[in-house]
Structure formats: structure tokens, C-alpha cells
Amino acid sequence: MMRTVRLYGSLAEKFGPSFRLEVRSLAEACRALGAQLPGFRQAIEEGKFRVVCGKSTRSKRALHLDKDLITFGLPEGDLHIVPVIRARKSGLSVGKIIVGTLIAVATWWMGGPAWLISMGAMVALQGVSSLLSPKKKTEKQKKSYMFQGADNVSEQGIPVPLIYGRAMVNPITISAGVTTANSTGLPTA
User: Fold this and answer.
1) What is the tally of structural domains in the chain?
2) What's 20's domain CATH number?
3) What is the pTM of this model?
4) 30 with 75, same domain?
5) Of the candidates 84, 86, 159, 98, which has an alpha carbon nearest to the alpha carbon of residue 126?
6) Transmembrane ranges (predicted)?
7) Does 74 share its domain with 109?
């Protein structure tokens, strides 16, 4: 069935706002757009999107698709692909914005020093930046039994200390490899 696939936000700016395609599911629509538009597949893989099937994105009868319904046969209606803005939801960030703004405004109103005004503005901007930055996903660390001694398991992306001289610290393994060999001298099958 012919349906209109509508793109919003950065996708619409980069690839165009709408396309008429003969597709039955979201997977078919993404595959068709990926074949026609260079860079579309990468943009879909890197982003986070809300997908709605219906007359509009705010319609009460619209079907909101999640990852389980990607290959699901869709009912009649347009397919809307809307980018989702990722933000960190934290009361501490909102508190920083409020406190920083109050410090800056009160200091300016009472004729206080300029460094206190800039400090208040800095605290408020830290709150704004922490609201806009994505929250880091924490993963469970897996125990490594490859090496003896203290626990030297770390997650990817941490800084590696560079030490000159002697140091009594727990080392961080940067890279490790295991190879197998036949110790009996007999050929392996």
C-alpha cells in the first residue's frame, strides 16, 4: 500500500520532509529510504527516534511503534519519524540553574563584585549543559580471571595513568591476548 513517510527535525533538513513509498512496515520504509538516500541508514543508526503511524503525530488513534513493532504490518496512515532530543533529567541540574541565576541577579542588583556575578552565571550554565548532555550508561563490570592479583578490570574509555619511576598502584590492563597451543606435541585434528 502506498503511504507517505514523513521525516522531522534534522532528518527533514538533511533528506527532505516527505516521501511516497509502497511499504508495509517500518523496516521496509527504512530499507527503501536507505537505498535511495545516501547517509540515511547511518543517521537512523546513530539517532534515537519516535515513530508514529497515523494521520498526525498527535492523533489519538495513532499507533506508536516501539522496537518490537519494526516488522509489524502497519495499518493505513502516514508514517512519521520524529527525532527525540536526548536530555539528562536531574533535579540537581535544575537546582544549579536556579541558584546560579539567583546569585548572579542578586549580586548585580546589590552592586556586588563582578567575579560573583560571573560565578553565578557559570553555575547556571553548568546546570544547562548537564541538562543537555546525554547521561552515561553504566554497565555491569565483568570479573576477569585472566590475570592474578588485584582486580584490574576497567571500562572502555577511561584515562590510562602514565607513571614515571616507581609506583605502588593497581595497574590498568590496556590490552591483553590469549593464544592456545598444543603442549603434547601431537597434531590436533
Assistant:
1) 2
2) 3.10.20.30
3) 0.46
4) yes
5) 98
6) 91-109, 115-133
7) no
